[in-house]
Specification:
5 strands, 5 helices, 2 domains, 51% helix
């Protein structure tokens, strides 16, 4: 190689090599951050379950399906699972309920139950008061609900359902709403069912 070539192109080669290394480091850091965010979200969702038994089963499933990849995190979770009394329910404080504005929320009440219709309308106004601009409707339920429920699509609306449950606990604590998955696709649509009372 001639000295002129080395003089002209050596800095360019060094610069390109440095840029490539910086890009690789940035890619790794972003991937790691996204993996950490994902791990936090799925663990938070598992810990939002109502009963300690369900929380334990959800965490075991995450480990069994190898959804989590950090060995230190898996070890810590296995330790917590081994002493279930120390496994608290984690209500999704990390979910910003203002994100519910992108959802349509429909509140269902028992037909011909005037008191429940009025309660559903009151609940709708409370939600709108907390989330101006959110679309909330009230309707007669076509199917029954054995308890007060928030129905949502598992895997796509989990955090939103927990966020809505958190909001309902705040604005309407007299009803203990339970999250219930549905089989049909309900993208950006959350249903609130008041317990069927005839």
């Amino acid at each position: 190689m001639s000295d002129t070539f080395k003089t002209l192109f050596a800095p360019l080669i060094a610069l390109l090599g440095g840029t490539a290394i910086a890009a690789i480091i940035a890619f790794y850091a972003n991937t790691s951050l996204e993996r950490d965010k994902f791990s936090y979200a799925v663990i938070q969702n598992a810990l939002a379950a109502e009963t300690p038994e369900e929380r334990i089963e959800r965490l075991k499933l995450l480990i069994r399906l190898k959804i989590l990849s950090d060995p230190d995190l898996i070890k810590a979770l296995e330790k917590e699972i081994a002493s279930p009394k120390s496994l608290p329910q984690l209500v999704s404080s990390g979910y910003n309920v203002s994100n519910l504005r992108v959802y349509k929320i429909k509140i269902f009440y028992t037909q011909e139950n005037v008191a429940q219709r009025d309660e559903a309308n009151l609940l709708a106004s409370k939600i709108k008061g907390k989330l101006p601009g959110v679309e909330v409707e009230v309707a007669i339920a076509k199917d029954s609900a054995t308890d007060d429920q928030i129905r949502y699509e598992r895997g796509r609306e989990d955090l939103a359902a927990v966020g809505l449950q958190q909001l309902l606990k705040e604005v309407h604590p007299q009803r203990p709403f339970r999250n219930q998955t549905v089989v049909t696709q309900t993208t950006n649509f959350l249903s609130v069912f008041l317990k069927t009372e005839r």
